Write the structure tokens for this entry.
Amino acid sequence: MRPIDKIIDSSDVMMGKYKIGQPLPTKGIRQVDPFLLIHHAGPKIYQPGDSGLYVEAHPHRGFEPVTFVFDGEVEHYDSLGNQSIIGINGVQWINAGRGIVHSEKASKKFVENGGLFEIIQVWINLPKSLKYSDPSYIGINHDNIPKYISKDEKVRINIIAGGFNGLKGPIPSQTGIIAYSAFFEKEGHIKFEFEDSYNIIIYQLDGRTTINDRKISAKQLVVFKREGKNIIVKCIEKSKLLILAGIPIKEPLFQYGPFVLNSKEEAIQAINDYESGKMGYLT
């Protein structure tokens, strides 16, 4: 089995007026290459008429901001002209490349009706060779995501990127990212196998499990060593997990706010390019 390196408790941080969970980065851990940041908003019940989560237009360059929607609806707009509404167990995958401006908010329908809202956003680094690639957006709802269901129906794996058990996810990751959302009923169990060239992290949104014989609780991030292939998850009570794997980039990293580049000079250029409109506009 692949040994566990660290188990990290999520900490609360403020993002504007919203309190959210942040297991990465945390004290002493800047990144788990290529994963830079994990933000967990919710679960929270919004009353009808409450505006819900609303992140105003802002730029990105040099990485992939990916939003996994577990409950509620997220409406997306960007400077490429894309607009979509992503619902429960859907995903929106942005390659910011050389620059994109976007906004995210609860959909009009969700604001009118209220309900349970829970999302996770992950920032995934891009290698230098792709940091100035053409930006792109993919929004995929639950019905278009392949699903593996165990014979006893106690485990469901949504395959978002990469493959699992002969199924292939719809996201064509440029860097070979593997991404699953996994849903377990009590006593459900499954084995994952990864090449040892990958860094693996598992974030447990809720419930209780054992992962490679270590007890894991809600809002904990499990970071694995890069040795061994097998990861065995056994469910103690109903649980929900996000499983991510990526090949380390091993390049210099300079992050300034919404820009993830290789040097301070590139970050200064990103600011100038955004302010001069080279990343597009969103009104």
